[in-house]
Amino acid sequence: MEILYLLASIISNTFISLTLSILIPFQYLYSFISSKQIPTTKINNGTKKPMFLYQGSVSHERKLPVYHSFRYSARYALFDLDIAPQTLPRSFFKDHLSAQQAREITKTNGPVFLLTIPPSVGYEQNPLSVYYCYELDGSDMCLNMCIAEVTNTPWGERVSFVFRPNSDIVAKPLHVSPFMDMLGNWSMRTDTPGDNLFLAISVQHPELGDYFTATLKAKRVSSWTFGPVLFFWMMPQKVALWIYWEVNVINVYYPFKFTSII
Questions:
Q1: What is the bridge-based pairing of β-strands 185-190 and 168-171?
Q2: According to its UniProt record, what is one Pfam family this protein matches (predicted)?
């Protein structure tokens, strides 16, 4: 029954995505005719961008009980949550925290940036989104706290938790893989987003030790001629396909080796 549901979901989402993709050229034509552009905001004689684009890769490595690793290319957006919701499509921020909500959770007083993969042509798939919450001290601004939003696949459950960016350990809050139990902690670390972006999560298990690591490495894209719609076209779909592919491959080739930790 679960396999049938999965197949039906894949067929339905494929049809919707392809149909909405056909409409993209007409949307760009309308934007060109009406001369619509993504606006910027002037603050203190400077220009603030609502969004920065990043392109890089996500890698997973599991050392035990059977070694397995994979990597896929990914594109992310870093939104300035104080101005982006007023200038970009509302679908980009659906089910995410506002800047004020993030500040209240982290007890910070500065800007809040959201790193995420926006939905594309009717589909959303985002295993991890991160809020970067800054603290203002006069004219100085520094990254103080982060919030992680983790969504598991295929169950679609989501949890949020706060962590310190330089390095922090949190108790594992939900099931994210059929091949990992709920024991252990997550060790998380991220750099301040700039021209380069780095994020790492490792699992510290009481029996298997530091046996799993996931990393995101990306570089800021200086410009993209055709805008965010084409930049992120089918990106969530690609992430979902890669996750399902890896899980099914492991199920086929190594099912008997994981019975001790499922």
A1: antiparallel
A2: DUF1365
